[in-house]
Design a protein that fits this description.
292 residues, alpha/beta, Rossmann fold, six-stranded parallel sheet, 10 helices, globular, binds nicotinamide-adenine-dinucleotide
């Protein structure tokens, strides 16, 4: 069994980005600039945005954090988005989800200029990705593909079961893994909450990507010997013994499943850090595309 070390790999990718940025600076080219919009004070969102901003600084990007009250109206947020779309100093920006209930998320995501949509959530980018055209690939599936590539894992012709059909992880990773290319060409089954007898599918899978958000969901008796397991799940589980009051859990019963796996991602330290690295990669890409 080998651990797919997302932490180490993401450090390597960030180092490469840092070098690309300093080369840009030496050559008098623009410094990539990422902005993050955070509405309200949700603890998890604050942590995510905080680490995104910190990572920007580490690789030499400019970063701007825009914090807005959770009472902001949809109209006011839309006008902020319009402002960001018109800001030529910005290469990309993200709107941290979830948004307060009174704001229509779909309306906000549709208002983002696809050229600055480094999260890859806009339908224009999603459609282009599905058609294998130049786009921004959502950071988490992009991170998984990059991990498979850098560990030189050949998924061609293999049976992959993706658990979860969200727009940001399950659905896009199912498309990417079945696309032509390397990594790619996998035969993909997309499972979800209405799937019947999931274990019968996962037991036959060469690769399992679990993205449902239920701690310890994937058990050892649900996988075959030699399986590759990618655990996307991140769930905060209360733990009074921990100074933070919670621990982070993946979807996979790691200890038991690891024994049967050829490769497996840990949580934390697997897909999570790759996600941030690929957001930076998308921002660099956007900046390079605007060089002309
Ligand atoms: P989501 O919460 O939007 O959807 C969950 C999906 O799981 C749904 O499609 C549902 O059909 C499926 N599902 C639920 N119960 C199921 C069951 N019993 N059997 C089969 N399928 C079932 O999903 P999401 O936003 O993709 O998030 C999934 C998990 O991944 C969460 O824990 C989230 O925190 C985590 N996540 C991690 C990263 C990262 O960077 N590592 C990024 C995004 C999401």
């Amino acid at each position: 069994m080998e651990i797919l070390d997302g932490k180490k790999l993401s450090e390597q990718i960030k180092e490469e980005i840092k070098q690309a940025v300093s080369l840009r600076k030496e050559n008098g080219l623009k410094t990539p600039h990422l902005a993050a919009v955070l509405v309200g004070n949700d603890g998890a969102s604050l942590t995510y945005v905080g680490s995104k901003v910190k990572s920007c600084e580490r690789v030499g990007f400019k970063s701007t954090l825009i914090r807005l009250e959770d009472s902001i109206s949809e109209e006011a947020l839309l006008s902020k988005i319009k402002e960001l779309n018109q800001d030529d100093t910005l290469d990309g920006y993200i709107v941290q989800l979830p948004l307060p209930k009174h704001i229509n998320e779909e309306k906000i995501l549709l208002a983002v200029d696809p050229k600055k949509d480094v999260d890859g959530f806009h339908p224009a980018n999603f459609g282009r990705m599905a058609l294998e055209m130049e786009s921004f690939i959502p950071a988490t599936p992009f991170g998984i593909m990059e991990m498979l590539k850098r560990y030189d894992l050949d998924i061609s012709g293999k049976h992959c079961v993706v658990i979860g059909r969200s727009h940001i992880v399950g659905r896009p990773i199912s498309i990417l893994m079945s696309q032509k290319g390397q990594p790619g060409n996998a035969t993909v089954t997309l499972a979800h909450s209405r799937t019947k007898n999931l274990a019968a599918l996962t037991q036959k899978a060469d690769i399992i990507v679990s993205a449902l958000g239920v701690p310890d969901f994937l058990k050892a008796d649900m996988v075959k010997q030699g399986v590759i397991v990618i655990d996307v799940g991140i769930t905060r589980v209360s733990d009074e013994n921990h100074p933070r009051g919670y621990v982070i859990k993946g979807d996979v019963d790691f200890k038991a499943v690891a024994k049967k796996s050829s490769y497996i991602t840990p949580v934390p330290g697997g897909v999570g850090p790759m996600t941030i690295a690929m957001l930076l990669q998308n921002t660099l890409l956007s900046c390079e595309r605007s060089d002309g």
